[in-house]
């Protein structure tokens, strides 16, 4: 148990060092902002509706997965 704990602590420490070492490379590059264009209210509404429909479909699929999972676990509540 002690060996597993020591190995996991060392792995976490090493992973954090690697992440910190990679961070300055991302800061050196200037962020490239996309050119913004004016969006009409109709286009904006269409994009919002598309995003909403996608989110609702994702939520429905998650609900179905959850129902299937809980149905197989608990049947007589």
UniProtKB/TrEMBL annotation:
Domain of life: Bacteria
Signal peptide segment: 1-21
Region listing for Disordered, in residue ranges: 25-44
Keyword terms: Signal
Name of the protein described by the UniProt record: Uncharacterized protein
Native source organism of the sequence: Microvirga tunisiensis
